Each structure stands twice: as structure tokens, then as C-alpha cells.
Amino acid sequence: MDKKMLTIDLNSQVMIDKAEKDGVETMYDRKLAMKAQCGFGLQGNCCRICGMGPCRITPKTPRGLCGADEHTIVGRNFARMVAGGTAAHSDHARDLAHTMALSSRDGNYKIREEGKLIELAKEWDVATEGRDIYDIAHEVAEIGLMEFGKPYGVSRLLKNAPKQRQQVWKDYEIEPRAIDREIATIMHSTHIGCTSDLDSLIHMSLRTSMADGWAGSMIGTRFSDILFGTPIPRQTEANLGVLEQTKVNIVLHGHEPTLSEMIVLASEDPELVALAKEMGAEGINLAGMCCTGNEVTMRHGVRIAGDFHQQELAIITGAVEAVIVDVQCIFPALAKVADCYHTKFITTSPKAKITGSTYIEFKEEEALAIAKEIVKEAVLNFKNRDQEKVLIPELKSSATVGYSVDAIIPQLDRVVNSHIDPTGTVKPLVDCLKSGVLRGAAGVVGCNNAKGVSNEAHVTIMKELIKNDIIVVTTGCGAQAAAKFGLMDKDAAKKYAGKGLATVCELVDIPPVLHMGSCVDISRILDLVAACAKNLDMDMSDIPVVGIAPEWMSEKAVAIGCYVVASGIDTYLGIMPPITGSSRAVEILTEGLKDKVGASFTVNENCHELAATIISDIEKKRVHFEKLV
Ligand code: XCC
Ligand code: SF4
Predict the structure, then answer these.
(1) 371 near 266, Cβ under 8 Å?
(2) Which residues of 343-369 are buried (b: 16+ CB within 10 A; e: fewer)?
(3) Does the structure show a pLDDT above 60 at 419?
(4) Three-class DSSP labels, 547-595
(5) How remote is the CA of residue 303 from the centroid of ligand 1, in Å?
(6) pLDDT surpasses 50 at 104
(7) How many other C-beta atoms lie within 10 A of the C-beta of residue 506?
(8) 50: Cβ below 6 Å to ligand 2?
(9) Nearest C-alpha to atom 8 of ligand 1 is from which residue?
(10) Phi and psi (nearest 5°) for 127?
(11) pLDDT tens digits for range 459-482
């Protein structure tokens, strides 16, 4: 098979050829080499939970040594994926809460968004009158940190949901308690000899995922906005073509804005810019990748180098002086690829040390000084670039990004600088949904998955949806696919959108696909759907909105899928999760949950069929919706 057929991105195809020529192995080579994947693993019915295993379920051996059957084994594995994903997102949020606790008027981290802080303080019953903004910040940070380990009570963010949805959570008993507690409970209950009942395992998975969506991720987004500013629409470009022949190229990859915000500052430091010129470069060019890329493009318009599947390919351009990473979604392979070029692969987090990388530990206390040290490493490395090995592919697309809820609402309202009123100002959006000018809204999110063709499902599904007047909001690597393929360009509405959506886009001057941030920022999507539902006095499950993860791969994505379903939003996956080993698990996740939370999963690995199903389901949902309005 031709490796290049494994991606639809033309730049990626050029780089796959170059890698071959340079003798560098990439994920695409490893994908072809790994011919057959383990069938038990694919179905989720291999158990390695205790030392008597691994136990694999077959018709001849229908139970593990302890007697666990396929339903128990699949359920436990699934629950552990949710716990892993919730841990990753929430630990990211915890770091931001610690950063907020460190914030000070003359320190590296300041409060940028006082209004948002005060709004949150009021929500959390923190006194604000006559107090120093930093005292308020520190108290709010402390309360945020308590959400991870408080001994009693449930997430304090649940009350942002419509009351109908809160009741569903109460009735089904999935209000999450402290975040760490939910994760620990799953690890405990899936230990050998605890829960074997599949319904309980799935119930537990949903409750833990709620600790991600309606606690960890929400804290992550709110605190990031308070510290670094709420995103507003801005212009940028996306794809490997944003790397520059004449500048020091730094790729920022990973997740947490605490590091990347400081790198952005450091890259503008006059001394470092002067040093770059001394090295023979024209300046310093930052380019983002994965969710870090989303964070810095949303807040600064930093251009996007690429998505999860382009991390090796960026280095293969031969034009990257440094890849700077913190946590999550970083291929260990980057160390080896970087070795083939002059690129420095710089790891910074004690939570993600990678063999073969250059480790410069990032500490929030000395943030800017360390960021400058890291940028300096990159700048000094420019002289080592081997021009003969450089090939920067040409393509890049322009995109308008930065659609936080705070940006979308006033834009749709055509009122500039309006303050969000969670019940009032979504009215124009709600009216478009009611009248049917917009048939519905879809959150298309998530990763790239080598089980399919990189970017194909994202781009196919988004195009189909907008053609059918379904407005798309997106985060994560899905957002990067949209940006790369021109769907975030304001002209995209004319080219690809149906008549209703195109009219709305033109009227309010937005692209048909809106970039809402990193995957932690799916909390923004929850806020938006909750605001619409409240405006209509409906449950979130009553409105024609869906969640879609066409190319998901991470455990985080599994946690996200679960909390989106738990929020009453039907969720469509383009990759089958490892659950097919248990017919009952498939039945509960794709059907049974409907009765409990009003939504469930649908899986189809054919993206054209999946798009058609989504569109027809949205139309079905409209019938119900139109009766209610
Ligand atoms: Fe990672 Fe967040 Fe997935 Fe992209 S989308 S591959 S999780 S970077 Ni979140
Ligand atoms: Fe086997 Fe049971 Fe141990 Fe799993 S927990 S490895 S099924 S004995």
C-alpha cells in the first residue's frame, strides 16, 4: 500500500515522501508494519488486571481465571479508559488552579480577565466587595483546588446546567463528587474482585466522566481565560506551510497554556529577537501543534503547524529549531526523528519525561526565565540547520479562530462587547434553530486515528454537515483539520454551506465552522448548549445538537464522549471503541443509556454513512424540538 494514501493532507504526503528519502521512520511506516492488531485488544476482552492474567475470552474460555466474563472484562477496561482520560484533563486543570494561586500583580502570571474572575467568585460565594483582585483570585483558586479532593458534596459547577438536566443527574446518581475521588473509585472498583456488574461499571464511567466535563475541564477553561484572557476572533493560518525558511522555527506542542503563554512572551523578548538576527535569522516564528497550538492560536493568533499526525512531519521539514512540549499526545518517536535533523526536542514536565529528549524543567515560579532559556536554546540552534535537508511544503490555509462563548454570543447578537447573560443573549442563535434556518448544531472534536485516513473523516463530515445547514463548532485536532482544509475561512460559507447557514454566516460575519479551542474547552460547548437550553426552558437533550468524534484515539476522548452523552447530547464516533467483545456493553452504550440520560453513542467507521446518519437524526430530533417550542 502507498503510505501517502493514509492521509488526505497534501503537505503530509510531501513529508511522507521526504521521510522516505531521508531514511526516517514515521507513524505511517509503523502502521504498515503492524499488520494485524490483537483481536482481543480490539474487542476489549483481554484482561490484565491481575497477575493471574492476561485472560482472554474465547468461545472455549468464556471466563477469566477469577470467573470474570466478557461483560466484566470489557466494562472494566472501558471504565479505566474513562478514568485515564479524566485524570489527564483534570490534572491539567489542577495545574492551572495552582498557577492562579501563584498569580500576583508583579509576577509572571497575572489576572487578565477581572470580570470573569468576579463572576466566578460570585458563583462560588466568594466575597468580592472592596477586596484586592489577587485576594479574590487566591481564594477562588483554593476553592477550585478543593474540587479535586473535597470530602463531601458534588461538583459546584453542575449548577450551570439547566435544572432539568441537573435533575437527570440526580435521579441517575451521576453527580460527580471530588474529581480525584471519582478516578480513585474507578481504579478501586476495577481491581480484581470488586465490581463485576457491567451496568455499574458503565454507570461509574459516566459519573467519572462528569468529573471531567462538569468539573475538571470547566475549571481548566475558566481559569485559563481568567489568567490569559478570553479568546476573541482573530486571523491565522494553518498547516506546515506556516514554517519559515528565514526564521527560527519553534513548534509548541502539548496542552497546558501555562508554558506556551510564557514561550509566546519569551519569543517577543527584544534580546532574543536580536540574538536570532545575530544567528542569521530574520526573527522567531512560533507555530502550534495539537491542543497547545489551539490555546495559543485562540489567544494570540499564533499560526498552526499541524495536528496530532503531523508532529513527526514538522520535524522532517528540516526547518524546525525546537519542538517544545509539556504533556499529552506527544509521540515518544519524536526523540528519534529529531535525531535525524538538527531539531532540539525539549521536554519540560516531570509528568512527561521522554527518553532521548532534552529536559528543561518548567517551574511556574520562574516561568518567564525558564521560557527564555528554552527559546534561547532554539535560537542558538538556527546555525545548525542544514539547508540541504530543508523542505517546507507550500500549503497553508487562512482561518478565523477565537470563538469563545463570550465571542460567539455578541457576534450572533451583532452587539459588540456585550456581557454574557446566560439566559438572554443566545436568543438569536436559538431563533435560528427554532425557525430551522439552522437545522442544528454539531460539535466535531477529537484526534486523528491511524485506524483511518488522517483528516478524511473530519473533513468529510464537517463538509456534509455545513452543506445541510448544520453549524459546526470544533476543538482539538478536529479544529486543526478544519483550519487546514479552509473550513474556518469566512469564504467557506459561500463555497460549502447550505443556504440557511450561508445566510447566517454572511449576516454575522463568521465562518461555518467555529474554532472553540483545545479539548479541555469542550466545556465551552457545554456552556453554549446549556445557555441555549436555559433560554428555551428545555433540557439539553431536547435541542437538535450532537457531538461527533470522527477520528478519536485518546482516553481523554473516551471520557469526553461519556460526559457529552451524560449531558444529554447524542454522540457519534468514527472509530469503534474496544467494547465489541461484550454485546451487552454495546447495547447499553448505543441504546440503553437513552432511557437513563436521554442520549447514547452511535458508531460507524464509514464517514459518509456516519454523516448521513447524523443529518437524518438531527432532522428526527427537530420533530421533537419543534413540538416543544
Ligand atoms: Fe490529543 Fe488535545 Fe486528541 Fe489532538 S484532539 S490528539 S487528545 S491533542 Ni484533544
Ligand atoms: Fe484474569 Fe480475573 Fe485476573 Fe482479569 S482479574 S487477569 S480475568 S484472573
Answers:
(1) yes
(2) bbbbbbbeebebeebbeeebebeebbe
(3) no
(4) EEECCCCCHHHHHHHHHHHHCCCEEEECCCCCCCCCHHHHHHHHHHHHH
(5) 17
(6) yes
(7) 13
(8) yes
(9) 290
(10) -65, 135
(11) 999 999 999 999 999 999 999 999
- What residue owns the CA closest to ligand 2's atom 6? 53
Cell of 527: 456552556
**Among the atoms of ligand 1, which is closest to the Cα of residue 308?**
6
Rounded to the nearest angstrom, the distance between the alpha carbon of 154 and the centre of ligand 2 is 33
**153, burial (CB in 10 Å: exposed 0-12, middle 13-18, buried 19+):** exposed
Give the residue from 548, 314, 310, 318 showing the smallest Cα distance to 450: 310
pLDDT at 319 over 60: yes
What pLDDT shows up at residue 415?
A: 42
241 Cβ inside 6 Å of ligand 1 = no
- Give 81 Cα–ligand 1 centroid separation in angstroms: 15
* Cα 290 to ligand 1 centre (Å): 6
Determine the atom of ligand 2 nearest the C-alpha atom of 55.
1
Tens of pLDDT, residues 209-258: 999 999 999 999 999 999 999 999 999 999 999 999 999 999 999 999 99
Distance 55 CA to ligand 2 centre (A): 6
- CA–centroid distance, 449 to ligand 2, in Å, is 29
Q: How far is the CA of 281 from the centre of ligand 1 (A)?
A: 32
What is the mean predicted confidence (pLDDT) over 45-53?
98
What is the model's pLDDT at position 417? 41
Cell 481465571, residue located: 65
Identify the pLDDT of residue 422: 42
User: What's the confidence (pLDDT) of residue 411?
Assistant: 80
- Which pLDDT belongs to residue 412? 77
Instruction: Tell me the three cell numbers of residue 29.
Output: 511506516
Q: How far is CA 443 from CA 108, 168, 560, 587, in A?
A: 34, 22, 12, 24
- For residues 205 and 410, give the distance between their C-alpha atoms in angstroms, rounded to a whole number: 36
Q: Is the CB of 522 under 6 A from ligand 1?
A: no
More confident residue, 412 or 166: 166
CB 554 less than 6 A from any atom of ligand 1: yes
**Residue 229 near ligand 2, beta carbon < 6 Å:** no
Residue to substitute in 294, 556, 564 for testing ligand 1 pocket (most ligand atoms within 8 angstroms of CB): 556
Q: Judge whether residue 423 has pLDDT over 60.
A: no
**In the prediction, which pLDDT does 414 show?**
58
Average pLDDT over residues 322-331: 98
The values of phi and psi at residue 6, to 5°, are -85, 0
Q: Is 145 in the pocket of ligand 2 (CB under 6 A)?
A: no
By alpha-carbon position, which residue is closest to atom 7 of ligand 2? 64
**Structure ipTM:** 0.96
Q: Is the CB of 65 under 6 A from ligand 2?
A: yes
**Amino acid occupying residue 364:** E
Cβ of 447 closer than 6 Å to ligand 1, yes or no, is yes
Mean pLDDT of the chain: 96
Q: Can you list the domains of the chain with their CATH numbers? A: 8-56 (no CATH), 70-228 (1.20.1270.30), 240-389 (3.40.50.2030), 402-628 (3.40.50.2030)
Contact 477 CB / ligand 1 (< 6 Å)? yes
Is a pLDDT exceeding 70 seen at residue 326?
A: yes
Whether residue 416 has pLDDT greater than 90: no
pLDDT reported for residue 143: 98
